[in-house]
Write a structure and sequence with these properties.
single chain, three-stranded antiparallel sheet, two-stranded antiparallel sheet, 56% helix
Length: 142
């Protein structure tokens, strides 16, 4: 499974671009288009090209995660939507989500409704997450 340009643009739209490391609302050091990991730390600065390299390297991994976990047929819009979602919430959260469980039961509509539940960070509803989930859900249902 591969994410399309449409999916990449969705991720870029909601992750935004920061060329200097910052802490996201969850308190995780982040840089570029939402890149996290042990290689991100306070004071780190990167170029636009490095931000793109991080994103494309990360997306290869996240596409593999989606391919590994999804056991039912999905279309390109669903791939794009789910990669964006998993990229944002992380592998463990996605692996253990009701969304994935319902999807793998071929209950596509109920799975889509699960996007609406993933709009909180540390118990607080974030408007940015609500907008992202709305777009991911719409794309998933196309």
């Amino acid at each position: 499974m591969n994410i399309s340009k449409n999916g990449i643009n969705l991720i870029k739209e909601f992750e935004g671009l920061k060329l200097e490391a910052y802490k996201c609302p969850a308190g995780i050091w982040t840089i570029g288009f939402g890149h996290t990991g042990k290689d991100v730390f306070k004071g780190l600065k990167i170029t636009l090209q490095e931000a793109h390299n991080f994103l494309y390297d990360d997306l290869k991994i996240h596409c593999q995660y989606i391919e590994k976990l999804i056991k039912v047929p999905i279309n390109q819009n669903q791939i794009d939507s789910l990669v964006s979602f998993e990229y944002n919430i992380g592998y463990s959260a996605f692996k253990n989500s009701t969304l994935l469980k319902l999807l793998n039961e071929k209950n596509y509509t109920k799975a889509a409704n699960e996007f609406d539940k993933w709009v909180f960070c540390n118990g607080k509803k974030l408007n940015g997450l609500a907008k992202r989930r709305k777009k991911e859900k719409e794309l998933f249902l196309k």
